[in-house]
Design a protein that fits this description.
binds adenosine monophosphate, 8 helices, two-stranded antiparallel sheet, five-stranded parallel beta sheet, about 220 residues, alpha/beta
Length: about 220
């Protein structure tokens, strides 16, 4: 089973991908997480990516292709996976569909988790991120348990939570602009292949997950 989760930043792709990873025992591949790890480890890839990421811009396709090819070669991808944050535009979608890897999967599904722009801004500006274990919290609906002197700490590892550079309001607006410019041709492409499904993302995580499970089982 190969699943591609699409949607604006903050739609809940990461949360749904984690739920799918647990249920189906397939890896969750988040290009954003891979890039943030590369930045943290001060690799050349990380340095290159950082100049785009902190402005909310997309990292160039050739960098992303390189890391996707590398990741797909790992043995845990043999039985499928869930992509979160990839593909991001038509070029990446075409690249994905041209990979030999894809031809092994009968069950290829693209799911758009749809939410409106003002909800994106509300969710992302309240998002807090653990720079150590990549856990995500939200001050509206997934509040971290430990708070001291106005600082929040990770429920999993105790690290102080931060606001991601690209979750600042101006950057969110830029990310949304880029999302809207690049998403339509990609959606049309997946629609033509009859693999696209759309779910409303403005409900609880468990409701969204149930809708996704229904799509998968049909
Ligand atoms: P995300 O965690 O998916 O919201 O991604 C955070 C940032 O990483 C994005 O704003 C981009 O700068 C970069 N990024 C993640 N995935 C991709 C991708 N598939 N193509 C280009 N840039 C990406």
């Amino acid at each position: 089973m190969l699943i591609v989760l699409l949607g604006p930043p903050g739609a809940g792709k990461g949360t749904q991908a984690k739920l799918m990873k647990e249920k189906f025992h397939i890896p969750h591949i988040s290009t954003g997480d891979i890039l943030r790890d590369a930045i943290k480890s001060h690799t050349k890839l990380g340095q290159e990516a950082n100049t785009f990421m902190h402005k909310g811009q997309l990292v160039p396709d050739d960098i992303v292709f390189g890391l996707i090819r590398h990741r797909l070669a790992e043995p845990d991808c043999k039985n499928g996976l869930v992509f979160d944050g990839f593909p991001r535009n038509l070029k990446q979608a075409k690249m994905l569909m041209n990979l030999e890897y894809i031809s092994d999967f009968v069950n290829f599904i693209a799911i758009l988790i749809d939410i409106a722009d003002d909800e994106v801004v509300r969710r992302l500006s309240n998002r807090r991120y653990c720079p150590n274990c990549n856990s995500i919290f939200n001050l509206i609906y997934k509040i971290p348990q430990k708070m001291e002197n106005g600082l929040y700490f990770c429920d999993n590892c105790g690290t102080e939570l931060v606001i991601r550079n690209d979750d600042k309001v101006e950057t969110i607006k830029n990310r949304l602009k880029i999302y809207h410019n690049s998403v339509k041709p990609m959606l049309d492409f997946f629609k033509k292949l009859s693999v696209l499904h759309i779910v409303n993302g403005v409900t609880s995580h468990s409701e969204v997950f149930n809708k996704i499970l229904k799509i998968i089982s049909n």
